[in-house]
Structure formats: C-alpha cells, structure tokens
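Module 6 notes. Inverse folding takes a fixed backbone as the condition and produces residue identities as the prediction. Think of it as a translation problem where the source language is geometry and the target language is the twenty amino acids. Below is one complete input and output pair. Work through it position by position during the lab.
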C-alpha cells in the first residue's frame, strides 16, 4: 500500500519532471531563436570563436547576442554616439596603419622649432593637424627624414603648404583623407596613366610643375561631384 508520504513524493517528482520538460522546451526555443539570428547574420560572430571549447563558444555566442540586442535597444541618440565612437576607433586605427601621429612637442623637436611656431604653422595652414579629443596631433607622413631634406620646407614635405589652404573648409579627417586615400585618377604629367597613387605618395616623389598643378586641381575639386 502506498503511504501518504510516498504519494506526496510522487507528486513532487511529477511536478519537477514537468518543470524540467517545460524548462527544456523553453531553452530549446531560446536557442533556436538565437541560432536563427546568428545563422542569418543579424548577430555578427567572429571566426575566432569557432576555435574555442564548447563552454567558451556558448558564452561568446551569448555575449554577442546580448550585445547586439542591447545596441538595437539603444535610443537614436545613443546609437548616434556609438556610431561616432566606432568611426573614431576606425580612424585611429587607420592613423596607426599609416605610421601614426606626433604631438606638438614631438613636432617641435622634429623640425627644430618651438611649440608656438608649430601652432602658428598649423593656424596658417602650413601643417596638417588633427583635433583628437581637444588636442592637436600631426600625421607623420608630412615630415621628411634627414636624408630627404631637399624635398622639404623646414622639414615638412614640399607641396603640403600649397595644398592644405585649398582644403581649409573641410574637416580634419577629410583633409587627411585627401592626402592618404588611394586613387587611380588620370593626371596630366603622371605616368603610367591610370596608376594607383595617394597625394602624399606623389608629393614624396617630388612632382614636377604639371603634376603639382593637377594635385591642386584635385584639392579644389575635393568634395564635389566632379570625378576630376
């Protein structure tokens, strides 16, 4: 004969089994939903995660999913801020790949002048400067090495002081992009025709007057719809 206590234990066991079944079904539904967002590319996943152990892999998947959901839940203002910060991070990485930047003090030492002189040259469009969090930094590409001094104006790449004033209405990043982005625009005097170049690269090659005039034309057309 089944005792009262045994009946109670059986009821408890049945209830626990039902909860386990419901929990398993709920977990399966959640996993299916999350797997769907990953499979369709809605939630981006890094390829490095595939090499992790199962527990770590699952944790990284959940972290990516929660991060994606959090970003999608942001207000328009926060989304705008996030995009701005992301854009800044990308730009800083680009600067690093292009050789980095120098502080005002480092530039002063590089060109053998005072920090006041550096600021004056910046203000007079003789140096390309980037405002990063309220402090000015100077891309290294515009400074020449000792053995290349003949291609410089006071240690600064020749031609910079002619092109920067033509870009004074643009943001720091747009100015930087003008000098560093790759192009294959056909320029008079540049051979072979259609070769890929950056403006900074051509300045380092000591362009003749014809090519220099073409670079000035590019600067005047920068930001317009004219393909130059």
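Target side of the pair, the amino acids:
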């Amino acid at each position: 004969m089944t005792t009262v206590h045994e009946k109670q234990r059986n009821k408890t066991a049945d209830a626990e089994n039902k909860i386990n079944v419901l929990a398993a079904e709920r977990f399966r539904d959640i996993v299916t939903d999350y797997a769907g967002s990953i499979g369709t590319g809605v939630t981006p996943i890094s390829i490095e995660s595939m090499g992790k152990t199962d527990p770590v892999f699952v944790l990284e998947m959940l972290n990516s999913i929660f991060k994606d959901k959090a970003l999608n839940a942001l207000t328009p203002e926060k989304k705008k801020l996030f995009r701005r910060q992301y854009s800044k991070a990308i730009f800083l990485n680009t600067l690093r790949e292009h050789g980095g930047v120098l502080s005002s003090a480092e530039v002063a030492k590089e060109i053998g002048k005072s920090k006041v002189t550096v600021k004056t040259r910046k203000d007079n469009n003789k140096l390309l400067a980037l405002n990063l969090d309220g402090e000015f930094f100077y891309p290294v590409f515009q400074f020449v090495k000792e053995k290349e001094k003949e291609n410089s104006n006071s240690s600064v790449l020749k031609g910079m002081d002619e092109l920067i004033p033509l870009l004074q209405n643009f943001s720091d990043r747009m100015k930087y992009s003008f000098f560093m982005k790759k192009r294959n625009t056909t320029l008079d005097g540049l051979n072979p025709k259609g070769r890929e170049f950056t403006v900074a690269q051509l300045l380092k090659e000591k362009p003749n007057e014809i090519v220099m005039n073409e670079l000035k034309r590019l600067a005047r057309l920068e930001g317009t719809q004219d393909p130059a």
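Reference fact for the lab report: The chain has two domains: 4-73, 79-221.
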